[in-house]
Amino acid sequence: MRAACFVLTSLIIGGLGACKPKNAGNAVSGNAAEKTYVAPGKYDEYYNFVSGGFSGQLSVYGLPSGRLLRVIPVFSLDPEKGWGFSEETKPMLNTSHGFTPWDDLHHVQLSKTKGDNDGRWVFVNGNNTPRLARIDLSTFRTAEILELPNSGGNHSSPFITENTEYVVAGTRFSVPMDDADGDVPINTYKKNFKGTLSFVSVNPQSGNMDIAFQIETPGVNFDLSRAGKGPSHGWFFFSCYNTEQANTLLEVNASKNDKDFVMAVNWKKAEEYVKAGKGKKVNTKYMHNVFDESTHTATSETKNNVIVLDAKELKDICYFIPCPKSPHGIDVDPTGQYMVGSGKLAALIPVFSFDKMIKAIEKKDFEGDFAGIPVIKYESALYGEVDKPGLGPLHTEFDGRGNAITTMFVSSEIVKWNIKDLKVIDRQPTFYSPGHLMIPGGDAIHPEGKYVVSYNKITKDRYLPTGPELSQSAQLFDISGDKMQLILDYPTIGEPHYAQAIKADKVTGKSVKIFKIEENKHPYVAKGESDTKVTREGNKVHVRMTTIRSHLTPDNIEGIRMGDEVYFHVTNLEQDWDVPHGFAIKGANNGELLVMPGETTTLKWVPDRVGIFPIYCTDFCSALHQEMSGYVRVSPAGSNVPLTFSTGTNLPAE
Amino acid sequence: MKKVAFLGLSALLLYACGGSTNTQETASKTEPAVQEVQEVPQEASAYDSLRGLGKFDKVDVGKALDQGMAVKGKQIFDVKCSSCHKLSDEKLVGPGWKGVTERHRPEWIMNFITNPDPMIDKDPKLQAQLAICMVRMPNQNLNDEDARNILEFMRQNDGVK
């Protein structure tokens, strides 16, 4: 079936593809292995941060080897690491809807300084229950999650400005504003549904996020976005579809217009309006969750209002540029002069000129307005069109040598073209149906055009069959020469949407190896075994426990009663790299703990029956790991068994 | 499993015959502890079992005890050492501390507690001890001052006044 489609597609493109390989087998040339081989014990050249899509997590690969280095839990529970199971991490998944254990993570942005990746943080978006998260690259852990009010479907996010001044979020699904009565007929979309664009400021020292302002827009679907840079710094560009404002069967009803829009937002101007008090304070409710590395504990704070600017009232912050047809990606080239729209249903790629756009705005060269927002004439903002690039253009990255590479979803290929003359230079098949693609620094001022990775939606016959579900694939191409050369193909987790990569040496030097036990400020830390104890406060029992190779202290606990809630606060006394200890107890309706050296982490356990419950370390830690275990005795409610705890002194009674 | 890999790496770093590979360069950039070891290139046969392996050549302890240092040493012992070592001569996970300052020179002790993994790989006495304890002494990330304070506490424990 797929092969048939592929052939058909080739015919449609006609002449462009010439001799396409019939399958993957002959697409890889002889020296591919040499180019991707990273010998055992050697490091990769790049860290590649890849969205985990509907897994809700962020994966980290090494390039060019394609080795999976880590999966960082972000929006979804991860029992392996205790993420969302330990008392300390539960607040991270808190939203205004309560504990929200899953999301759909689409896009990845490395923090930037002067338009280039700086290796401090990675920002990611949650599409389903609109959120932003920040991952700290010293710990490779999620440090902060911010919920977005007045939003549905946070898709055009978390794209960032040149110096990480703002991370943005835009609504893929317009909804009534939070302070309006939401109990309205769905078919009153045009009247009652609004889009918002959130500008979230980032503290340059701590990285902490705060919603600086939101811009309220007519109800449309914002899809992707990119910041301007260089000359266009101060502007942001959002692609939008469903300018039909359909509320049902969008597949048909949102695909009627020949052109939808790219919305250009003058965020510097918006900042001025906020300063001048032109925003209105809108009541709402959203959560801001921050993980504190000194207490190893997250806190979740409720926020109650946000400043909203009205795009229609404030005439000069938002402009629409017509863009054929249902644009998906909107990508800004390294010079900041050209904006590439990828109309996924269009047979061409429009390239807009920033200078022309500014002149058109100055001359009010508008064709009219859409819901009160001026619409610039298409030709007045257009630099030119790439003719017949392929079918289904989705996303574009830049190689830093004046070229752009665009994924073609329908015709399953990546296409390289020149930004100045708009001529196609090369095209290579991908297997199959690429969504995003990634060049290290490919959205930055200085791209490193050595590799491009294509993230493919369909895997089909690429790997050994594993039942109905297959891993999606990533394909690495060497783009250092004239021809793009496929050199590696590897499976990914969840669904990889966008990804970014950074030279390893910008990150490795600051990677934390341990948490210093002296600096541990957890309220239930045990700094040494003499600090360990078990205390009762009503029906709550707090166990301050330590781990070190290879015993738990205490490892014998008696006097727990039915009806108790037991909190195991486990401090790992190790101060050596790569020596976590795990902790688990039989029958817990909970995950495990995985405690890093110097860290304290808490597992809540509510015993469900009387008896003896084994506890043990889950991470093989030494030759005596199997001995790293103990017992907890649970007695009936009201029992007079005294609360006792010990290690090594509770000697055999007989 | 992880531990085996780590051992392998340590061994590689120690025994590599001077040829600097990319791995070593990258690893040493991010791992100062290992780099220090590399700066003391020694053949296996050149291992000084009295001094040990690490940055400390000669530690002058003086005759009398420094009370202040010993108090600080005790505080570190409580957090980082007492899980595995008793102050008597009784073995817990590792050997008891009684008499350790009589069995080993000050520089050997300070080298070992700041640089345990490479020394366990080389030192005959530590090899023998490992066969008894079966647990490699963890690197507890002690700085020079910590190590010196612990040494003073060990001296106090051995009766130095």
Automatic annotation (TrEMBL), chain A:
GO terms for molecular function: copper ion binding; nitrous-oxide reductase activity. It is found in: Cell envelope. Its EC number is 1.7.2.4. Its main location: other. Keywords: Copper, Metal-binding, Oxidoreductase. GO terms for cellular component: cell envelope. Pfam families: nos_propeller. SUPFAM superfamilies: Cupredoxins (SSF49503), Nitrous oxide reductase, N-terminal domain (SSF50974). The keyword rRNA-binding does not apply. InterPro entries: Copper_CuA (IPR001505), Cupredoxin (IPR008972), N2O_reductase_N (IPR011045), Nitrous_oxide_Rdtase_Sec-dep (IPR026468), Nos_propeller (IPR041114), NosZ/Cyto_c_oxidase_sub2 (IPR051403), WD40/YVTN_repeat-like_dom_sf (IPR015943). NCBIfam families: nitrous_NosZ_Gp. This is Sec-dependent nitrous-oxide reductase. It comes from Chitinophaga tropicalis. The gene is nosZ.
UniProtKB/TrEMBL annotation, chain B:
Residues 1-16 form the signal peptide. Residues 68-158 form the Cytochrome c domain. Pfam families: Cytochrom_C. InterPro entries: Cyt_c-like_dom (IPR009056), Cyt_c-like_dom_sf (IPR036909). GO terms for molecular function: electron transfer activity; heme binding; metal ion binding. Keywords: Heme, Iron, Metal-binding, Signal. PROSITE patterns: CYTC, PROKAR_LIPOPROTEIN. This is C-type cytochrome. It comes from Chitinophaga tropicalis.
